[in-house]
Design brief:
Elements lengths: L9 E2 L26 E4 L3 H12 L4 E5 L10 E5 L18 E4 L4 H15 L3 E6 L5 H6 L3 E4 H12 L1
Parallel strand pairs: 2-3, 2-5, 3-4, 5-6, 6-7
Antiparallel strand pairs: 1-7
Length: about 160
């Protein structure tokens, strides 16, 4: 089930001067990324859904995933990888991206990929899916914006009742 864009709860560390980066909190300011500057890491069906939605808007997307989509849209560049680790990011040239979305179903993998994007590729904006709300603080501590998947899904389901 796809989540409506305005129902996704985004949290982020607003003071990142010590890291020489600026984070824009999506809940207060939405911006359309420049074409070709988004990379989606993982996510299986969630990652495919996000990639397709963004590609439909005309955004050029790079998607890194162990399970590639069967019929990707034309603006979607897919990098099929054996596993999501440091070597999986090399071919995607993350240093050219301004936004990276990390949407794997495992919080540990998302934290590792977010840290690599930040420290190795100097990506200015990283948004990570967090599946266990207790782990949001780990992402916040390193200045990574988060989407609390439990809160977003809970909100959508309860609004249907």
């Amino acid at each position: 089930m796809a989540l409506p864009h305005d129902l996704i709860e985004v949290k982020g560390n607003q003071d990142m001067k010590s890291m020489n980066r600026q984070t824009i909190n999506m809940s207060s300011t939405r911006r359309r990324p420049e074409e070709g500057d988004i990379c989606i890491i993982g996510g299986n069906h969630v990652g495919h859904n996000i990639a397709n939605r963004l590609a439909t808007r005309g955004t050029s997307i790079t998607h890194i995933d162990p399970i590639p989509p069967s019929d990707p849209p034309p603006d979607l560049t897919v990098h099929e990888v054996v596993s999501l680790d440091a070597t999986a990011l090399v071919d995607a040239d993350l240093s050219e991206k301004t936004t990276v979305l990390v949407v794997q179903p495992k919080d540990r993998t998302n934290l590792l990929m977010a840290q690599l994007a930040r420290t190795q590729y100097d990506v200015s904006r990283i948004i990570a899916r967090v599946n266990d709300p207790r782990r949001v603080v780990a992402f916040d501590d390193i200045g990574i914006e988060t989407v609390d998947a439990s809160a977003a899904l809970g909100r959508v389901i309860s609004e249907r009742l």
